[in-house]
Amino acid sequence: DVAIADELILLDGEEPIYEEIHLDDDTAPGALRFRISPMSFFQTNTLATEKLYGAIRDWVKDIAPKNLYDLYGGAGGIAFSCADLVDHIWSVETVLPASEDGRINATNNNIDNVTFITDKVKNYLKWRIEGTGLAENNAVVLDPPRAGLHPKALRRLTELAPKHVLYVSCNPKILARELEALTEHYELKSLKGFDLFPHTRHVEVVAELVWKG
Fold first, then answer.
1. Residue 146 is inside which H or E element, if any?
2. Backbone angles phi, psi at 141, to 5 degrees
3. Do residues 76 and 105 touch, judged by C-beta distance below 8 A?
4. What is the 3-state secondary structure (H, E, C) of 148-207?
5. Is 170 a catalytic residue?
6. Which one from 125, 170, 175, 206 is the annotated catalytic residue?
7. Cα separation of 59 and 57, whole Å?
8. Most exposed among 3, 123, 151, 162, judged by the fewest C-beta atoms under 10 Å?
9. Continuous segment of H or E residues that includes residue 33
10. Are 111 and 40 in contact, with CB atoms under 8 Å apart?
11. Quick one: which of 190, 179, 173 has its CA closest to 157?
12. pTM above 0.85, yes or no
């Protein structure tokens, strides 16, 4: 599920690569530029990613939270696509190079309301439970790796009970399994597919969930 190298050797060119995304939204702040280091994360299909992030942005505009939790946030792609719509975003990512890229990208894009936290999501949610919980008027975006949510992360998320959750999945089989647990507490409002992997059987799926209570 994760590519890990013991050693990286630069053969030619710069160590990071750079990518831009352009959201099809007149209210968006303009092009977003991303620094992506070798052990960081970014979607591989940029044009389809613009559609995916645009849909996430539309969801945030629709529910209008003040605070957004971007869990498994990578280098900030989702967070930056929505940063101008909320007061604050907490982006939680276990891979340190991705968090470091995110902080650099925030500066390069003049974004100052995203906090990058390098930690496992299950640990971060435990810390939130033991503390003051989630900030008021919040929403949560989940974009886990192919293995899906850790069981403790899933359980702690439902314990924190955010009203609005958007689950972005690159593994629909895992999503289907986890929806069985999530729909005990949440109503599935919509399910959409995005073809980030053309000419393959794979598809990215976005599930919109609303708390039943």
1. none
2. -110, 130
3. yes
4. CCCHHHHHHHHHHCCCEEEEEECCHHHHHHHHHHHCCCEEEEEEEEECCCCCCCCCEEEE
5. yes
6. 170
7. 5
8. 3
9. strand 32-36
10. no
11. 179
12. yes
